[in-house]
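quick one: NAP bound model?
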Amino acid sequence: MKTLKSYVGGRWYEAKSGFATLVNPSTEEEIARASSEGIDFGEVLAYARDKGGPALRAMTFAQRSGLLKEMSRVLRDNRDELLDLSRQNNGTTTPDGSFDIDGGSGTLAWYSSVGKRLGDRTFLTEGDGVQLAKTEAFWGQHILVPRRGVAVHINAFNFPIWGFAEKAACALLAGMPVITKPATATALATERCIELIVEAGFLPEGALQLIVGSTGDLLDRLGPQDVLAFTGSADTAKMLRSRDNLLASCTRVNVEADSLNAAVLGPDVEPGSPTLDLFVKDVAREMTQKTGQKCTAVRRILVPRDRADDVQAALIARLEKVVVGNPADASVRMGPLATANQLEDALRGLAELQKGARIVHGKAGRADGVGVPEGKGFFLAPTLLRSDDPATAGPVHDREVFAPVATILPYDATATSAAEIMAMGGGTLVTSVYSNDAAWLGEFLARGAEATGRIYIGSEASAGEAPGSGAALPQTLHGGPGRAGGGEELGGLVGLKLYMQRVAIQGNRPLVDSLSGVAS
Ligand code: NAP
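yep, here:
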């Protein structure tokens, strides 16, 4: 069985003990083992701080952009191999694996283009300068400089490539070295991806390290110039962000966590219209893509009460066609959940949801998959629930079932009611709203925009080009308030600012302009 290695201190490290086993979730075969036992995390941090940080800070944005361009190329050149590893370890179909891998290479390429535009600078100016006294004799300007620490990235199991790439793109472009840690259970593709990048030999020493397995005492060693960017469950986030050391040293922490995203059908969308078809098609895809293991997946489906039966029937007709099984079988459209734990958690979650909703399609039990022996694999068929009283649907608004599971919530067709129900999720990453009625949409935004990080408007006008609400695009914000973690990633330069210190420069205008790079 393959033993995964960590890449620390400029070499590959193989542990001797403390292994966790990685499993193919379709067949339950053991495929690899991983452990970080024996790594000296003090040395890992020192290597990043002493080698990677200075090298990256000495580079211009254009030079850092070149690193991202190469990383993107490596991912593209090795896409087929990474797809295969993702199929083995994450149970992903080819389209689901591509969503992860192409998302990663696309995000790196986009941030590379940002760096190229920023050119020969090493830091950013922010906004216009401002007069601070009677005249320009006393002037102020904000600048953003790379933090002189290490960016520690802890990622969730569902995006082994994109999760690494989207965080690394922002940190490296900002000028911070990265220590990346994938979820242990699905680290196979990440390990190979880092190996390919290291082999290509273009990264400065210490710019990128990989931990496969536990982070040991790494987090207890972080200081005020370091950044911890975490993606995962709200429970782990709470435990990490309340660690004494991180609180005491004011280490910057960014959290991307759970989200009970809503898809809302506006009352102006007529039965039989293309926008209604688009809504049903998008919701079915957002429920089942990556077997529902997407932080941006649709969990709650808000439909005007008089349309609920029709939408339910149309959704069931689509979900019935989804062939569940081993992605190695060409007929399969949806793979298994990634681990036995995920299946157990989803089944527990389904039991909880049924306290506020009833199952109208699927079942609260493990399914058998196509292409594997009976009884093998962590399969769950797409499962649709319905609650006719959203206000009392309790767990539907606070229990994330990380699986192909969503609940129909009929509402009274007003924008206020839709926004209030959406906001019951306690803060989401994305809300998709299907309507062409600007006044209704305006009212929805006025009442509910603050409860979500992104509003995706689905309509015929954008259908040909829009990628669906599940795609976190680098140009716009990924993150959301409350339950979603309160973090901010991507969003163009927003994503870089996590890794930079904002400094206000005050003084005589010509000096301030010259120091901040405004005067040429
Ligand atoms: P998880 O169990 O919270 O684990 C996430 C990461 O945290 C893993 O790398 C895990 O490592 C690590 N971790 C756990 N305990 C730790 C500790 N004490 N110290 C340091 N690291 C620790 O979450 P998951 O099951 O992988 O992911 C599913 C969740 O992620 C869902 O709730 C989903 O909504 C959320 N998610 C959110 C986003 C977003 O962008 N908002 C994106 C994807 C997923 P090990 O694997 O080694 O335990």
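The mean pLDDT is 97.
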